[in-house]
Structure formats: C-alpha cells, structure tokens
Amino acid sequence: MTTIPKPTPLPVTAVTCLEDRAHVERAAVLDLQAGVQRLRLGPVSALAVDRTLHAELASGHPAAVLDARITRTWTPRREPADNDSALRRRAHALTRDHLALEQERDRLRGRQDLLDRLASDLLRDIGEGAGRGETDRPRWTGELDRVDVERASNGEDMRTVEAGLAVLDIELTQIEQALRVSEEEPAELVGHVELTVESAVAGRVELYVSHLTPCALWRPAYRAVLDGDSLTLETDAMVWQRTGEDWSDVRLTLSTARSALAAEPPRLVEDRLTLTGRSVTERRTLGVELREEEIGSLGPAAPVLGLPGVDDGGEARVLRSPAPVSVASDGHAQRVPVSTFATAARSEYSCSPELSPLVTRVVRFDNAAGHALLAGPVDLIRDSGFSGRGTLDFTPPGASVDLAFGSCDDHRVVRRAEESRDTAGIGQRTVITRTVHLQLSRFCSPGERGDRVVVLRERLPVSEVSAVEVRLRKETCSPAPDAIDAEGIARWDVSVPPNGHRTVTLVYELSAGAKVTGL
C-alpha cells in the first residue's frame, strides 16, 4: 500500500449551522494512483465528531473509500514575528541594555587590570631607582597620585555598571515570567483525516467529506426601518463559532433542527379511570375559579431543555445565505444577511391600561419575506434614527406582524377600577358589578394641530359554564365599546385633540347562581 505523508488541503466549502453545532462539508481534488493508497488530508478541526465522519468519491471514477478516520496530534503554535507585544518589545530593549552594560563592564575590568599593572610597574621603577641612589621624589609622588585617582574612578564606574546589571537582571526575570504566563501558549491539538482509497486506474477525482462539529451556533436577528407608511425588514443571522478553524467563503445554511434531542417514541403506560360518587355538598354546589389565559393563535412553543433554542413553531426551518460568507473562529458574533423586503405598514397608537399606562405606537404589516420569521430581537429605526430594540414573535409567511416602536411621552392614561357585590332574585343570585374608568390625556406643544386616534383595549371575563353569565351594561358605559371580540377584549377608538382629555367608562356584570362557589 502506498502512503503519502504530505497532507492534502481539505478546505471547508459549505456549512449548515444548527442551534448548537454545525454540519461541515469539505471538498478536494485527489491525484490517485492505481492500487491501494493511504492519504493524509487537512488540517481539520480537532473538535470534529469521529462517528459523523463521511467520505465519498465523485461518481464516474473506478475508485472506492476503504477507510476514513480522524487522527489528532499536538503541534506547537508559532508566535508572530512581526506583531510583538509591548511586553516582548520591552524585553528586547532590556536585553540590548543588558548586553551594552556587560560590554562596558568588560571594558572597565580590562582598564582596571591595566591600571593595576601600571601601578606595579611604577612601584618597581621607584624601587629600582632608589637602589641606584635616585631621589626624584616629586615625580614619583605625582605618578602614584595619578594612578590612584584613575583606579578610584574606574572602580566607581565598575560599581555603577554592576548595580545597573543587577537591576536589569531582576526586571528581565520578572518580564520573562510574565511572558511565560501571558504569551507562551501550549501546543495546539490539530486533526487530520486519514483516508484509505483503492483505485483501479490512476487519475484525478473529487472527494467530498462531511462531519459534525460542536462550538458553533446561530440565532436570528432583525432590523426594522420605518419610513412613513413603508417598512423595510432585514433578516439577519448572528453566527458564533469557535471550532478551531475559520470558515472562508462558504455556503452557509441555517437550520432550526435539534439533532441533539433523542427521537424516541413515548412509552405506553396504563391510564386507569375510576368513578367515584359525589357527596351531598358537591351535588349542591358548583365550584368555579377565575384564571388568566394568554391569547395565542399558534399555541405555545415546545420547551427545549438546555440552551434556549429558536421558536420555529414546532417545525424545522431552513434559511440560506444568498452569498458566500466568512466566519472567523474567534467566538465573536458575525452578522450574516439572509433576506430583505419592503412592504406597506399601518400605524396605530394603542394602549392597554390594565397592563401598562403607556400609549405605544404599533406598526402592523404582513410577512412578505417568503419564509417564516423566527422569534428574535429586532432593532427599531425611525426617521430620527435608532429608537430602541424590540422582540419579534414567530410569524408564518403572509401572516400579520405587530411591532411596537416605542411609547409616546405626550400621552397619559389613568385607570381606576371599582367593584360591588349584591344578591338579587328568588334564588339569591350573586351579582358582581365592575366599573372601570379610563382617563386619557394628551399634552402637545403650542404649534401642534390635528386630532390623534388612540385605541384603548380593556378585557372582560369570558364564562365557560352556563351557570355564570357575563353581561355588558351598555346603557351605563360611556361610551359603549366599538367592538368586543371572542376573547372578551373591548376596544374604543378615541379621538383626542391637542391638549385634550377623554374619559371612557366600562361597566359589566358577573351573575352566578346560588350553587356557584369560587367567585
């Protein structure tokens, strides 16, 4: 079997990014020889999942993949030569200074040796002269004093240089320790794909490799631009990945499939139903309770254990980037454009005083993106610029979307509720009367003109049993609601002039028989 030790590049060509991992596709062109040979491809991410590795050759060539596996080795990381840090530059400067001081110390030591030999020669000359009877005392004194002065000056320079070397040694030791902690990275784990191929004839053939890798995820994000009666919605994908290799010019696909969840059928268990007789008290009374239900047209999303996922309406959704993208393996968010559409928008000033006293500008438009809008944050932009950030709920194609573009500070709503309880009739029916007063005020600048329509919404209870009745007292409402939907939401379209005030009164009754308890 022929073995080719030199690795063949295996670049990433396409990526399908899931909620918490990515499916990576690679491609390469191989020069195969006749017979069985082992190839080394890569490098690839060391985080690649071994059991998901799949390799196949393009059809049309008489060759087959016998074995494919991922091998990993520790490789030292190369430090950048042209991008040194300030700490390393300081270490280089201290090293140069240390070398210069060492050279100066060697020069001073050589001069000290020379002065010592000069003093010895001078003393020997004085001794020999005195033995011959010479008495040149002034010359001998002057030469000895000059040598002593030079030796003292050289010794002082020597001590200064040695003190400087000691300081540099301490600082260099500290910097080297800091460099070892901050910049000297451990060896990197690098993976390669080892491929065993059998080919009948020599030739070039395309290879396709795919595998799963963790440390990659995406989430939807939006940007809504409101320009008069037109709204532009940009759908983006925030992609993070730290797989150990960069994705350069790849075809990016975004999916909400949850491959980590186990697809097992539920186990069948016995469900026994037991009939029991009611007591006398239970036959005489009917227990009811007041509860709050959230109104939804699509139903609540199924909870996902672990990392919060994307609300896709219970069905796996697939989005694709229109152009190749590049995502660096640094863990930072990369914003990838997915789609953009512009559509007509309808604005409404709305307020639900029971939930919030603020009047909010709500923009309503239809989803014309051609795909479902997944739940995610949306940046709101108006004529004045960035106005805030909201949340976009899951919206199927063609459905209506409501976006709140902030509250109106020139409006004020005050809500006051009253309740009275009374009994009436032969059967002593309980009648609960509730009165809700809504006071709406608008404060404007002196130059503002024109009325503004504000939509007020207040809820009424909805009875699920015939023993409890809910009746709206239109004769005492001021004014009567413009509409009441099936969920019991009453609506008023209130026109408010500049610096004007409006009052809305809602009155309704809850009537229950004597057997009803719980109200």
Question: How many runs of DSSP E, i.e. beta strands?
Answer: 28
* Quaternary organization: single chain
In terms of structural class, how would the helical and strand content be classed? Answer: alpha+beta
Mean pLDDT: 87
- Helicity, in percent? 10-25%
Distance between the termini: 86 Å
What is the total number of structural domains? 4
Beta-strand level of the residues, as a percent range?
35-45%
Number of helices: 3
**Largest sheet, if any?**
7 strands, mixed
Instruction: Label the overall shape.
Output: elongated
Rounded Rg: 43 Å
Low-confidence segments, ≥5 residues, pLDDT <50?
298-307
How would you explain this protein's 3D organization?
By secondary structure, the protein is of the alpha+beta class. The protein folds into 4 domains: 2-77 and 187-213; 86-182, Helix Hairpins, CATH 1.10.287; 216-259 and 296-408, no CATH class; 411-517, no CATH class. 19% of the residues lie in helices and 43% in strands. It has 3 helices and 28 strands. The chain has helices spanning 86-131, 137-182, 280-284, and strands spanning 2-3, 12-17, 22-32, 35-44, 54-57, 63-75, 188-199, 203-213, 216-227, 230-241, 247-255, 286-287, 318-320, 325-327, 334-344, 346-351, 359-366, 376-382, 385-392, 400-408, 411-424, 429-442, 452-459, 468-472, 483-484, 489-496, 501-512, 516-517. Strands 2, 3, 5, 8, 11, 13 and 14 form a 7-stranded mixed β-sheet that branches. It has a 6-stranded mixed β-sheet with strand order 20-17-16-23-26-25, with no helix packed on it. Strand 18 and strand 19 (385-392) form a beta hairpin.
